[in-house]
Amino acid sequence: MKGVSMDSTEQQILALIKEKTGVPEVSRSSTWEQLGVDSLDVAECLMEIEEKFNVTIPDTDANNMKSVGEVIDYVEKKKK
Fold it and tell me: Is the pTM of this model over 0.70?
């Protein structure tokens, strides 16, 4: 089922970002700024997401991602 895999992608990314940043509450609408992470933290999160989901996120795309939801949507599109 399509919905199940999308949920699991979303849940996995949220869990990964929580673990990496140490921020207990992370949602799709969370921005990197709200999470209080710097560009290095963002880069580390994205590298781990790339590795986990076997996708490539070019720097130009990564720089445009301001919220966690944008990252999730991007990974879901790339995985297909």
Answer: yes
Active site residues: 38
Q: What is the pLDDT of residues 54-79, one digit of tens each?
A: 999 999 999 999 999 999 999 999 98
SS3 31: strand
Structural domain range at position 58: 2-79
Longest dimension (CA), the chain: 36
Distances, alpha carbon 15 to alpha carbons 5, 18, 55, 59, 70, in Å: 15, 5, 18, 22, 16
CATH number at residue 61: 1.10.1200.10
- Domains held by the chain: number: 1
